Structure formats: structure tokens, C-alpha cells
Amino acid sequence: MVDFIKEDIIFSLLERANNTDKGEIRNIIDKARDCKGLELSEVAKLLFVEDKELLEELYAAAKFVKNKVYGKRVVLFAPLYTSNECTNNCLYCGFRRDNKELHRRTLGLSEIVEEAKAMEAQGHKRILLICGEDPRKTNAKHMTDAMEAIYKNTGIKRINVEAAPMKIEEYKELKNAGIGTYVIFQETYNREVYKKMHPTGLKADYDWRITAIDRAFEAGIDDVGVGALLGLYDYRFEVLGLLMHVKSFEERYGVGPHTISVPRLRPALGWGLDKIPHFVDDDDFRKIVAIYRLAVPYTGMILSTRERAEFRDELLSLGISQISAGSKTSPGGYKEEEEKADQFEVSDHRSLPQMLETICENGYIPSFCTACYRRCRTGEAFMEYAKGGEIHEFCQPNAILTFKENLVDYGTESLRLKGEAMIKKALLDIHDDKMRSLTEEKLKDIEKGERDIYF
Ligand code: SAM
Ligand code: SF4
Fold first, then answer.
1. Both ends of the chain: CA-CA distance in Å?
2. Which residues of the chain have pLDDT under 70?
3. Is the CB of 183 under 6 A from ligand 1?
4. How many Cα atoms occupy the beta-carbon half-sphere of 314 within 13 Å?
5. pLDDT of residue 389
6. Between 20 and 30 A from 60 (CA), which of 83, 116, 292, 393?
7. Which residue from 250, 257, 249 is spatially nearest to 223, judged by alpha carbons?
8. Is ligand 2 within 6 A of the CB of residue 92?
9. Nearest CA to ligand 1 atom 13
10. Dihedrals phi, psi of 114, to nearest 5 degrees
11. Mind listing the pLDDT tens digit for each residue in 74-86?
């Protein structure tokens, strides 16, 4: 049995953390402002904060850290579901094997390319390939063929993959096909709950899932993404479990995750909100996002369209650095939506251009940048740049340049107006004069028709 997650330690940390006095909480919040992260025992104490004043201080610190590490940039992407066929039976998922009402479909290569083209036509450059687990249909070959076809036939620049655990050789195939980040959620870090929620199929094996990140690292994939599905069990346990997992592979491989996602359970076909065992409300959710931000300041944080529009806008300031937009959760959903084929219900239905307008209105600069991956600034190399603060030097100009491309190629009149104003503001956030004037020159090149310009 794999022992990365020591449940007894998590329970005892939680037991000792309750009723921490205000002075100690304030010291932890102050420490977090140094952007050096937090210990598990400190995180446990923050997880119990309910006092309004302290919560405001916690949020202010999260905003400070977010701003210092990420500035005003927000990276955009969307999921591409290649199949909803699945041999597992995760109780909460619309794709579960026993859901006989779902219309099943695995896209062929040309259909996958059509989907990617439809996403590109909205302005996307970065996609997340997702599928159910069916070894006969959605195996590594299905994924690598899809990736190769998309890279070859579309302008999509980065393909991340969210899929079931694989063998090292299979991860190597994904690496060779040009995977960006490999994403896998443990769902719940509690073994007993895990067993209940994943009764049959390959996914029933907790250990095979929690060691997936290790095999991905061994295969040379050094950008990985993790997450706990919020609502399955006590959120305090899950946050500590996830951070314990992160620390365990940081110790073994010298690099933490590229991203943490914060998926919260949604209704799905045959699974209503009333079935959620440990409902996480908005106040808890806000706190979780802020605490992750303080605990691992250099790890990107992803928010999906599972959350409502106005709530997503609010969470940007607390620590979210990547959001999906215009998402569909059924195979083929971008070309034509089919009823009863979705994984779960999305809450934010704004299109990518609508989302971009809102991001600008709220004072953020959208980014379609994929440069780090293409310039090999991944894994440990990325973290070194990030921790040294140098990543700002690349990210801000790259956000401006890639957003400019989007405005010129896809922007509506009203988006262009707001976008150009935002670009002007964002240029002022490049503090190095030489870099700023280089960026301004490149902006002119983009207007003249040059593409794919980045630092
Ligand atoms: N099938 C693969 C797996 O389970 O690892 C790939 C990912 S699955 C299609 C995407 C993720 O959606 C799951 O890992 C789970 O966390 C999440 N999910 C499933 N059902 C959900 C629901 N009802 N609400 C919100 N998220 C859900
Ligand atoms: Fe299948 Fe993944 Fe859904 Fe579980 S979460 S039923 S493995 S698609």
C-alpha cells in the first residue's frame, strides 16, 4: 500500500488546528505574504478560520500574493472531450458505466480535428484533451493520434491531457506526441471514501491512481496538474491531503505541480446536488482558493466553468491564474451539441469573446501564451524562473502579444475597444524599458500580419 497520504497525521493536524488564537492566525497570514509557501500545520489552522475580519485578512493576503506572482494575467483554455465511453463507475459522473441514459460516443480522428478547429475559430490556442477510461477505445494510442492530428491540422499550440492513470511507456508516448501538462485528479484523498465512490473498474484502485504522477515524471513529463474533487469528503481533509501529495512528489522529484485545479461537484445525469456527501458552499470555496494560493504561491490554479459567471470573476483576484471559457463537456459538443451526452452541467455559459470582454472590464489581461512549453521552460526550469521572479519578464509581454493576435484575428468591435485599452495599461506593467519598447515593436508587427511572436 502506498503511504504518500498519512491520514492519521492529517486528522491529528486538524484536531490540533481548531480554535487557534487570532494572533497566531495573523502571524501565519503575515508569513504567507513572503510568497514562500506554508507548512501543513499552518494550512490546517487557516482552514478553520471563520471569523469575518480574519477571513478578510486572509483574502487580502491571497490577493497580494496573486498579484505579486501572476500580476494581472489570466490564461485561457477549453476542454475537448474525445469520448464519453467509460468502464468505470464513479458515482458522481455522468459518464459512469451504469448510466444507461447517456448517449455514448468516441470521436474519430477527423471529428476530433473538427472539434479543435471549432475551438480555434473561437480564438482558443490551448486545449485540454479529456476522455473516459475505456482501454479498448480511449487508450494512449487514441490520445497520441488525437494530439498529432490536432497539432498537424490546426493552429492549436498546446495540448494538455486529462486522462486515467497509465503505464510509464504510455506516458512516454504522450510525451513524444507533445503533451503540455498531464492532469489527473485524485478525486478524494481519503481511502475509505474513495472506495465507496469508485466501486468498480480500473479506477477502484486508489494506489494506481495516486502513483500516476510518479509514472508521468519517470516518463519525462515534468508539467503535471493535480486536484481534489470538492464535495466528496471534508474539504479540510482534502486540502491537506492534496498538499501532502504535492510535498511527497516534490521531495522525490524536486518539482511541484504546474497547476492545481479546484473542481467542485456539479449535478450530472442521474446525480443531483442532493447526493453530494460534503457540500462545499461558496464561503468554503473562497477560503480554499485563497489558502491554496498562500500555501503554494508558484503553482498555477485552474477554475473551470463548473462555477457561476459572477463567482468566477470574483475568484480571479483570490488566486486563479487559468480559466476555461466557452466549454462543452460532451464529445462533439463544439460542432453540435447532443442532449444527454455531457459529463456534468456547466454553470458559466459565456463564450470566449464574452469572457475576454469581462476579463478586460475587470482589469485583467487575457493570455493565450504557450511559450514556456515551446521554449522548454517547464518543470524545474519553470519553477526556477518563477521563484526568481523572472517569469514576469516573459509572461507579461507574451500575454500582451498573444492577446493582440486574438484581437486582430477574432475580436469583435467592442472586444477590440476594451482589449486595446487593456493592452495600453498592461504595457505599463512591463518595468524594463527595453522590454517594453521591444513589445511595442512586436505589437506593430502583429498588426502587419506577423504571427507567433513571443519571448
Ligand atoms: N476519466 C478520467 C478520470 O476520471 O481520470 C479523465 C477525467 S474525467 C472525464 C474529469 C474529471 O471530472 C474527473 O476527474 C472528476 O474530478 C470530474 N467530475 C466528474 N464528475 C463530476 C461532476 N458531477 N461534477 C464536477 N466534476 C466532475
Ligand atoms: Fe469515467 Fe472519469 Fe467519469 Fe469516472 S470520472 S466515470 S473514470 S469519465
1. 45
2. 373-374, 376-377, 381-382, 385-392
3. no
4. 13
5. 62
6. 393
7. 257
8. no
9. 185
10. -60, -45
11. 999 999 999 999 9
| Residue in this structure with the C-alpha cell 486515467, named with its chain if needed | 164
How do residues 122-141 score in pLDDT, each as one tens digit? 999 999 999 999 999 999 99
Look at ligand 1, atom 25, and give the residue with the nearest C-alpha: 265
DSSP-assigned letters across all residues of 133-168: --TTTSSHHHHHHHHHHHHHHS---EEEEE-----H
* 417 grid coordinates: 475597444
Grid cell for residue 150: 490536432
306 lines ligand 1 (CB under 6 A): yes
| Set of cell numbers at residue 179 | 503533451
Single-letter amino acid code for the residue at 314:
E
Q: Which of 81, 83, 87, 88 to mutate to test the pocket of ligand 2 (most atoms within 8 A of CB)?
A: 88
C-alpha cell at 249: 512528489
Cβ of 339: how many Cβ atoms within 10 Å? 8
Round to whole Å and give the CA distance between 150 and 75. 20
| Residue 306 near residue 138 (C-beta atoms within 8 A) | no
